[in-house]
Automatic annotation (TrEMBL):
PROSITE patterns referenced in this protein's UniProt entry, alphabetically: YRDC
Name this polypeptide is given: Telomere recombination domain protein
Pfam families: Sua5_yciO_yrdC (PF01300)
Organism of this sequence: Leptospira interrogans serovar Grippotyphosa str. LT2186
YrdC-like domain sequence ranges: 12-131
Ranges in a coiled coil: none
Annotated transmembrane regions: none
GO molecular function: double-stranded RNA binding
Entry-linked InterPro entries: DHBP_synth_RibB-like_a/b_dom (IPR017945), Sua5-like_dom (IPR006070), SUA5_domain (IPR052532)
């Protein structure tokens, strides 16, 4: 199934449909600044397992956490200095990936298999909506 969303004014019905399907373990593909990304609900064990299978990678490999803003991503970061936060805010949005230590708020369903408490955070400010 292909769903198209208006980037500025997406239909709430379609957003709810996507949200419901993601929570059921479905996978979506969507464009980012640089590539197309596979999207799963980070709280869905089934969705996360499908991601690992589709990407054909070990469960010890980190997944990217795509966030709508640095402010939201900072909820999952162990420590982020004010200077680092200001710099990241200044250079985003854009095709940047920041690798940082995760805190206890990171969805364990998605990241519990990692040996180190390191996770890759990818900050994007597109196609991320809260339904």
């Amino acid at each position: 199934m292909i769903l198209s969303l208006h980037s500025i004014n997406p239909e709430k019905r379609k957003l709810q449909q996507i949200s419901d399907q993601l929570s059921q373990g479905k996978i979506y593909i969507f464009p980012t600044d640089t590539v197309y990304a596979l999207l799963a609900d980070s709280q869905s064990k089934l969705g996360v397992e499908k991601l690992y299978e589709l990407k054909n990678i070990s469960k010890n490999q980190p997944l990217s956490l795509i966030c709508p803003s640095i402010s939201i991503a900072s909820n999952y970061i162990e420590h982020l200095s004010n200077d680092a936060f200001r710099l990241m805010k200044k250079i985003t949005p854009g095709p940047f990936t920041f690798i940082t230590s995760a805190n206890k708020h990171l969805p364990r369903v998605s990241f519990s298999n990692q040996k180190e408490n390191k996770s890759e955070f990818e900050f994007r400010m597109q196609f991320i909506y809260k339904s």
